[in-house]
């Protein structure tokens, strides 16, 4: 997973012997329609056509259509509309249009070998009585100009259509020559009740379709960090890049009107594991041949680079996959949001548990413990109906582009109904058992005896899926949506769900062990990189008898995926507790213990395990300590105005006693600038560097400027500033 995959061109699939024509799977390909198409054999030369209508001009009415279809923000000169909603085209003829004797139509064509039965060739007559899949009507006729209203079908193909205006004569059809400036992009429509992605509330459409910037949550459940991100779905080149993603994945054109199929196909196409998709995954820490996942600020650079280079982009991790996938979905008109699950289980064998093996003394046996829990994992939710599922399972659907496990032979996940996951209905497609396990697994501790046998001695059913967060609507704060994925622990509803899950072979581990009357907890605390700190442990005796606990404290440098690296702390404790007593114990952790061993994202994982002398009961606690990184100071100078040069400065001070080498700064902002990069070969200890640059805003209104700093010794350094651009 950590190695870059090569983009090998796919062999052209031949359909000879099975079909007369290949399956159209490219929006970019397609033959131009002939300017004159006879109805039958014709004598030599074209027939006289002077007495019939002649088309002088076709106006796509961009300004009005884009405003009404909520597509004005796209940095694209072509017409962009949404299906199931009327748009206008004005046609100027050589003379006045006479409905009694003149016949004309508009033709919309997508892909190669267009066919009306497949929805890839769509004739639209300006007559409601000739209604077919797309409706047409004359809105206005004045002198030689006719304004036609066209309403695409609510389930029509999403993509870029070639547009023609054609006049019908007794001899044949005479149409306009192909002009790419008249192409029309048709998108999903969350504003239309007939569309499968209809979203009722306007403020939700504003956030989940139109919002260009967002927040990605990471860190630890009790110490949450918020990273800004530029989704940039309206930036120049992004829409064409999203269509190219489906082309590169060889998704049949006819399937591109179904949001279920689009989301499922794209969850595979955003990663490069199977189909030379957008992003190469890399969790190794070595990013020599690309950009570190922590360095990106935006989906725009990634998607545009992928479409222009025709090669997968290096590198991504879960939040990058989720952010790019979010851009793809919002760009095409599917409501979407990025979700972070804290303490996310990766269920490799489908047994719905994470196994931790203890040795004879009660200490974690690292050699035998293979399972791990991601500190956090990011995926997406997209909003749509699910006609393939029973009623009630539409709405938010989980989709995940991070390549973890294969589904139907490809590295993809979803869409899976959030409601189905919450209610234990994990038999429904797609991949619901895997997602259910991510939020609902048990952590099972096993004791290994001298004979090598292991038996379960303790179960923690609340550690996994501690919090599920997404950005709140209209605010830079998180919305806790854990209750949308599962019922509260111990409630009657939760027991019902567990029973339902057991029907599908996903039952939890049942362990018979004495009631635990001694508890231990690792208390949360904020620590900065390079700090000495005291790890605070709290032991509680909930019984009326004295208890003595022999405990082991182990600390490891850990990747955010839960994979441990070096051990940085090991200590043995003996704590004696009087009846009903609570005692706090501190363990010193020095910067020298961990600084030279840190891996990216600066996480330390501490596990406390122990045994009570009086009754041999097992006590345990786990916590990830996320080390906070230094900040960037971003300042916009003056009052930004549209099309006027604006200055910006970024300041960083190296707080460490060692130099930072090969430091990269990235700056980006929707409607403000394309991504800019600054390189510092070295920043000395305690030294400050200032990067001064400029940008020219393209449109008025509030937006955000985002900056990241990244180097091998320091990841996840970022900042943002709100920019209010005046007209």
TrEMBL record:
Pfam families: Transglut_C, Transglut_core, Transglut_N. PROSITE patterns: TRANSGLUTAMINASES. Residues 22-41 are annotated as: Disordered. Its EC number is 2.3.2.13. It catalyses: L-glutaminyl-[protein] + L-lysyl-[protein] = [protein]-L-lysyl-N(6)-5-L-glutamyl-[protein] + NH4(+). It comes from the Eukaryota. InterPro entries: Ig-like_fold (IPR013783), Ig_E-set (IPR014756), Papain-like_cys_pep_sf (IPR038765), Transglutaminase (IPR050779), Transglutaminase-like (IPR002931), Transglutaminase-like_sf (IPR036985), Transglutaminase_animal (IPR023608), Transglutaminase_AS (IPR013808). Its cofactor is Ca(2+). GO terms for biological process: blood coagulation, fibrin clot formation; nervous system development. Keywords: Acyltransferase, Calcium, Metal-binding, Transferase. This is protein-glutamine gamma-glutamyltransferase. It comes from Conger conger.
């Amino acid at each position: 997973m950590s190695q870059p995959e090569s983009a090998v061109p796919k062999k052209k699939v031949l359909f000879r012997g099975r079909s007369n024509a290949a399956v159209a799977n490219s929006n970019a390909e397609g033959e131009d329609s002939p300017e004159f198409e006879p109805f039958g054999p014709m004598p030599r030369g074209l027939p006289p056509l002077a007495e019939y209508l002649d088309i002088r001009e076709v106006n796509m009415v961009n300004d009005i259509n884009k405003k009404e279809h909520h597509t004005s923000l796209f940095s694209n000169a072509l017409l962009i509309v949404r299906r199931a909603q009327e748009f206008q085209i004005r046609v100027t003829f050589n003379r006045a249009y006479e409905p009694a004797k003149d016949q004309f139509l508009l033709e919309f064509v997508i892909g190669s070998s267009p066919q009306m039965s497949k929805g890839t060739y769509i004739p639209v007559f300006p007559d409601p009585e000739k209604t077919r899949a797309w409706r047409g009507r004359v809105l206005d006729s004045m002198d030689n100009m006719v304004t036609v209203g066209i309403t695409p079908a609510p389930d029509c193909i999403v993509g870029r259509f070639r547009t023609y205006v054609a006049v019908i004569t007794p001899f044949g059809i005479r149409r306009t020559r192909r002009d790419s400036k008249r192409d029309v992009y048709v998108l999903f429509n969350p504003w239309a009740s007939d569309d499968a992605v209809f979203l009722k509330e306007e403020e939700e459409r504003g956030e989940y379709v139109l919002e260009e910037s967002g927040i990605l949550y990471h860190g630890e459940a009790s110490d949450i960090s918020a990273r800004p991100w530029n989704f940039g779905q309206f930036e120049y080149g992004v829409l064409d890049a999203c269509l190219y993603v489906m082309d590169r994945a060889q998704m049949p054109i006819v399937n591109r009107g179904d949001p279920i199929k689009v989301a499922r196909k794209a969850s595979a196409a955003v990663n490069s594991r199977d189909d030379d998709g957008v992003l190469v995954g890399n969790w190794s820490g070595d990013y020599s041949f690309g950009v570190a996942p922590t360095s990106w600020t935006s989906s725009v650079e990634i998607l545009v680079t992928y479409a222009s280079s025709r090669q997968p982009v290096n590198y991504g991790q879960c939040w990058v996959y989720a952010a790019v996938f979010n851009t793809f979905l919002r760009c095409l008109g599917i409501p979407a949001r990025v979700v972070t699950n804290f303490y996310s289980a990766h269920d490799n064998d489908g047994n719905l548990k994470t196994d931790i093996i203890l040795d004879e003394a009660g200490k974690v046996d690292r050699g035998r413990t293979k399972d791990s829990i991601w500190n956090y994992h990011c995926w997406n939710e997209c909003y749509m109906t699910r006609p393939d599922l029973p009623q009630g399972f539409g709405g938010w659907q989980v989709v995940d582009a991070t390549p973890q496990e294969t589904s139907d032979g490809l590295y993809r996940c979803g869409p899976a109904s959030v409601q189905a996951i919450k209610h234990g209905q994990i038999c429904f497609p797609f991949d619901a058992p895997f997602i259910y396990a991510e939020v609902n697994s048990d952590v099972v501790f096993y004791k290994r005896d001298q004979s090598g046998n292991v038996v379960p001695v303790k179960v923690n059913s609340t550690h996994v899926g501690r919090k599920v967060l997404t950005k709140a609507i209209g605010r830079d704060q998180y919305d806790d949506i854990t209750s949308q994925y599962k019922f509260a622990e111990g409630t009657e509803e939760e027991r019902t769900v567990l029973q339902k899950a057991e029907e599908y072979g996903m039952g939890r581990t049942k362990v018979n062990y004495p009631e635990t009357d001694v508890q231990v907890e690792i208390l949360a605390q904020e620590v900065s990189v390079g700090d000495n700190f005291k790890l605070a442990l709290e032991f509680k005796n909930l019984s009326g008898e004295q208890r003595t606990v022999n405990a082991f404290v182990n600390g490891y440098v850990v990747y955010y995926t839960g994979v441990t690296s070096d051990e940085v702390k090991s200590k043995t404790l003996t704590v004696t507790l009087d009846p009903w007593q609570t005692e706090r114990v501190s363990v010193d952790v020095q910067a020298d213990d961990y600084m030279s061993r840190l891996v990216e994202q600066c996480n330390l994982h501490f596990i406390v395990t122990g045994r009570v002398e009086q009754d041999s009961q097992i006590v345990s606690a786990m916590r990830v300590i996320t080390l906070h990184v230094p900040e960037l100071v971003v300042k916009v100078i003056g009052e930004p105005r549209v099309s006027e040069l604006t200055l910006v400065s970024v300041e960083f001070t190296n707080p460490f006693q060692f130099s930072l080498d090969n430091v990269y700064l990235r700056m980006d902002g929707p409607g403000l600038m394309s991504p800019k990069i600054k390189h510092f070969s070295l920043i000395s200890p305690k030294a400050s560097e200032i990067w001064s640059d400029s940008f020219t805003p393209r449109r008025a209104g509030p937006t955000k400027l985002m900056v990241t700093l990244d180097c091998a010794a320091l990841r996840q350094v970022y900042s943002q500033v709100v920019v209010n651009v005046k007209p």
